[in-house]
Amino acid sequence: MSYITKPQVGHPGLPKNALGLTRRDYEGSMSTLCAGCGHDSVTAAIVQTFFDLDIEPHRVAKMSGIGCSAKTPTYFLGEAHGFNSVHGRMPAVATGASAANRDLTVIGISGDGDSLSIGLGQFCHAIRRNVNMLYVLENNGVYGLTKGQFSAAADLGSKSKRGVPNLQPPIDPVTLALTLGATFVGRGFSGDREQLVPLLKAGLLHQGLAFIDVISPCVTFNDHEGSTRSYLYTRDHHHDVAPIDFVPLRKEITTTSRIGTTTTVTMHDGSEIRFRKVGGDWAPTDRVAAYEHYRRLAAKGDVVTGLLYVEEGGGDMHAQNRTVSEPLYDQPFEKLCPGNDALQELQKGMR
Amino acid sequence: MQERNTDRVNDFALKIGTVNGTGSASANSLLMQAIFRMGVPISGKNVFPSNIQGLPTWYEVRVSRAGYTGRTPDFDLFVAMNPATYERDIREVRSGGYVLYDSSWPLDPMLDREDVTFLGIPLGAMCVEEFTGSRQRILMKNICYVGALAALLDLDLEVIRGMIGEKFSRKAALVESNYRAIDMGHAYAVEHLECPLPIRLAPMNANDDSIIIDGNTALGLGCVYAGATVGAWYPITPSTSVMDGFTDFCERFRIDPETGEKRYLIVQAEDELAAAGVVIGASWAGARAFTPTSGPGISLMSEFIGLAYYAEIPSVFVNVQRTGPSTGMPTRTQQGDILLCAYASHGDTKHILLFPANPSECFHMAVEAFDIAERFQTPVFLVSDLDIGMNDWVCPRLEWDDDFRPDRGKVLGSKELADLERFFRYVDWDGDEIAARTLPGVDPKGAYFTRGSGHNKYGGYTEDSAEYVEVVDRLLRKVASAGEVISAPIVRDGEDAKYGLITVGGCESACLEAVDALAEEGIGLDYMRVRAFPFHSAVEDFLARHEVNFVVEQNRDGQLRTLLTLETSARKEALLSVRYYGGFPMSRHHVVEGVHAHLNGAQT
């Protein structure tokens, strides 16, 4: 339905952010996904995130692979460069973009087919490299564009639209990311924007790869009884480990006063993530504890959400490499090419 | 009875058979370097197994005062150090030649040949006596045969000693033991054998302005000089040393001396697919990025290559070809990926290829590849091979023009964008088939959506057939137009030439030698080496000038010939194929015999 265009002019009373931009400036083209698709809610949360954080759209590179999820970058940040690459390979392309220009804000949108089947290796290795990006996995348990096959994320016993149960165990991206050494692991639900937006904000400002799995129901192929990725099932089993508030460097909390903040993680730029209700044997900065806590709740049948683990100062790809601070794409040629004198000197050792 | 040799100064070939992992490689390069320093034209070919330790390995040295560098299978001397391969090694020596062997153990009488001279030196026994520890004894045995060869071939002992001194300048103990090994081998040969042999060396000055370098190292160096900042790769023989070279030179030239920070980033990816993706992402974001690989890697990268072609993202793919298909023979050479690279990926695709023939061209074409990729916004393949890439070649000293500035192609910045009413990614404003691009992060006006799905010239998604055709037709014209800009073929007209001989890449050495040999027989040939695809108009001209052209290449199916029939107006019947594809570098005799076969066939 790409012929439907949005009106160009917004209401003059729309609120503006510090850059003088309205939320409309962070939108993209009209979604062509099914009405009620969870992905569109994720898109809306992304729009709000970038708007709230006052990020210039053109500084953003929005990357995707193939699938319903891969279409969504078209629907936000129309003034950002977008790259709809090949199936399962978004992480490599994002790695390259970040390598070339470390000043870019890189957001990658993937799906469970894209990241957990065809692109499982790429997903894992982008985490290992700790590419400085926000990696959002829109997880609905099915292949939408090819009409409803199970994905590798589908739960054991979850039923397809035709009532056939899935017989293979799922690949859980959250536990996978935790074991691979991801420095930021969270999970949200497309139906809970209040939870998702702070998660996205913290993920965007995290130095390194921030992975957020978002349960995003497929209204067409996986929203029926017997599915463990439906809106109903997710709402019924939703368990937020600890609501967070994200406090950007320059802002104080303006929302309703939260009580019971127990843990604060300060990010590389001075922003803060404030966790509420952290308790028991779980702490968001303890990888092993986070893993155990998550597995225990999941075993009970909970759809566990929230910011499960965060490690600031983990050293992203450029820190590991000790890359110069100016982006590589913009280096003056004189600093890259050693010149003829150096070549002649070098060749003295080749005789 | 054996026939006596007349003296053959600076014109012979020898082959050394050793065991992989015994340190013979450094002994052999010592030998090559010593001959090089005597100013004598030399080429060395390493014939090695896909193995780290224990399997047979060979090293071939050809000395040619005429300057021929092609592989020759006519070995005048065999240095047989591996009893496991004695039988086949001794068979390889030409009649009247020599076999140098380790006489610590008696030679099986079954191996005797009456038409060759056996030169026994008890290398093993001498080293056991002289050195301690099994590892040192094995290593020094190799150095010891170099000493013996110095006496037999009249190689300047001082040159060798000088090189050992340079090589181990920080390890005095090693210098001393290497000296002893060299002297021991030399002294034994002088005392017990007739030295020098009729095949021997005499100083020349052919190498005054030359260096020894392998193609992969030269290519890695070229990438540094081209200004590449992002390299992504997955290790694969025989391309690994491209990235090794790039890494070494970056460490030398690209680390800020004050801060220790790097002006480059190398990603060792999880596979070739990811390596291609990193290159495409980095190029999209404006860096010069490349990936070195071999045929199997290109197979894996093909999906991404199609994306780069269709989305018009500059990218450089280095294919150091090895023997296919499938895993094939990873340590043997071939030119079996010509068609694969020309049309890599599904759908209608066609790519720009550059074919270096030697390390000098590896260096210069690396620079050319980035310029062409950025100018035409498309993948460029540097199609090298194992022989060029991994063997040491004597090349003219490399020169660099300090006035060179890279051609970054049409990239619009904020200033240029300000003059535009609106930016559209795939609109060709000036009719040269190339649309301007923008880089992410630079200017809001330059934003666009890059996609491998159907798009119109405005960059928008399309399923409209006219819009689709408009874009892919321009791509066809765009890549075709590169043909006149990229490296033109090398053409050398012969005297009274009736036929043409066309070749590509590393076949050049064998072909040039064959052309000379055939000329002496009265078969005059014009010579052309294709250096790039799409073909330059000079290729068409050459084809048109000859009723018959021999097409010489190293693959079973005559891929260059196929490409010529597909992409030029040459008649298929006018292109006679001469092929050798057994995994070794091509030799003169392959070409000569191939041409003879065709001519004899034509006569009957």
Describe this structure in words.
Chain A is of the alpha/beta class and 351 residues long. Chain A is built from 12 helices and 13 strands. An 8-stranded mixed beta sheet of chain A has the order 2-1-3-4-8-7-13-9, with helices on both faces. Chain A is globular. About 2% of the residues of chain A have low confidence. Chain B has 604 residues and is an alpha/beta fold. In chain B, the strands form 5 sheets. A 7-stranded mixed beta sheet of chain B has the order 11-10-12-13-15-14-21, sandwiched between helices. In chain B, strands 3-4-2-5-6-7 form a 6-stranded mixed beta sheet. Chain B has a 5-stranded mixed beta sheet with strand order 18-20-19-22-23, sandwiched between helices. Classes of the chains: A alpha/beta (351), B alpha/beta (604). The interface between A and B is large, with 63 and 79 residues.
Average pLDDT of chain B works out at 95
> How many β-strand stretches of chain B?
23
Shape type of chain A: globular
N-to-C span of chain B: 39 Å
- Computed CA radius of gyration of chain A, to the nearest angstrom: 21 Å
Number of strands of chain A: 13
Short description:
Chain A has 351 residues and is an alpha/beta fold.
Salient structural properties:
heterodimer, A: 351 residues, alpha/beta, 8-stranded mixed beta sheet, 3-stranded antiparallel beta sheet, 12 helices, 13 strands, 30% helix, B: 604 residues, 7-stranded mixed beta sheet, 6-stranded mixed beta sheet, 23 strands, 39% helix, 20% strand
Please outline the helices and strands.
The complex is a heterodimer of chains A (351) and B (604).
Chain A: H1 38-52, E1 60-64, H2 68-71, E2 81-84, H3 90-100, E3 105-111, H4 112-118, H5 120-129, E4 133-139, E5 142-143, E6 149-150, H6 173-180, E7 184-189, H7 193-205, E8 209-215, H8 231-237, E9 238-240, E10 244-247, E11 261-266, E12 272-276, H9 287-299, E13 303-310, H10 317-321, H11 333-336, H12 339-347
Parallel strand pairs in A: 1-2, 1-3, 3-4, 4-8, 7-8, 9-13
Antiparallel strand pairs in A: 5-6, 7-13, 10-12, 11-12
Helix pairs in contact in A: 1-7, 3-5, 4-5
Chain B: E1 8-9, E2 11-19, H1 24-37, E3 42-47, E4 56-64, E5 75-80, H2 86-92, E6 93-102, E7 117-121, H3 123-130, H4 134-153, H5 157-167, H6 172-192, E8 199-200, E9 210-214, H7 215-226, E10 230-233, H8 240-253, E11 265-268, H9 272-284, E12 289-293, H10 295-311, E13 315-321, H11 338-342, E14 352-354, H12 359-376, E15 379-385, H13 386-390, E16 392-396, H14 414-418, E17 449-451, H15 465-481, E18 490-492, E19 499-504, H16 508-520, E20 525-530, E21 532-533, H17 537-545, E22 549-553, H18 559-567, E23 575-579, H19 588-603
Parallel strand pairs in B: 1-8, 2-5, 5-6, 6-7, 10-11, 10-12, 12-13, 13-15, 14-15, 19-20, 19-22, 22-23
Antiparallel strand pairs in B: 2-4, 3-4, 9-16, 14-21, 18-20
Helix pairs in contact in B: 1-4, 1-5, 3-4, 4-6, 5-6, 7-8, 7-12, 9-10, 16-19
